[in-house]
Amino acid sequence: MTTPDSGVYISPAQTYQEVQNLVRAVGRLEAKVDRFLDEAKDIRQDVSDHEVRIRALEHGQSERQRTETNRVDTVETRVTGVERRIWAATGAVGMVCMGGGYLLQFLLNG
Hints:
- The protein is mainly α.
- It has a domain at 12-83.
- Helices cover 85% and strands 0% of the residues.
- The chain is built from 2 helices and no strands.
- It has helices at 12-58, 63-109.
- It is rod-shaped and about 150 Å long.
- It starts with 11 loop residues before the first helix and ends with a helix.
- The mean pLDDT is 87.
């Protein structure tokens, strides 16, 4: 026959106290998890906002890029106009020089 195990006796008061300690510990953990979840939500919003801005930059849709594009288009239009005038002036000078050469030849031979 085996002898009964004397074991450890835990009174109901001790059990109640341990349960109360666990309740407080779980409450602290819940508060920490709630703060973590709030911070994670803020981080997700920041990441989402950054993602949107990065996509806009990649596609050239930011306000600064649109401004720069408009400025480049304006400068390009002005340069094209100046180039056109320079070529026209060069052609006119060439015609005047050629006409002057013929006139000078006519005057010297004539």
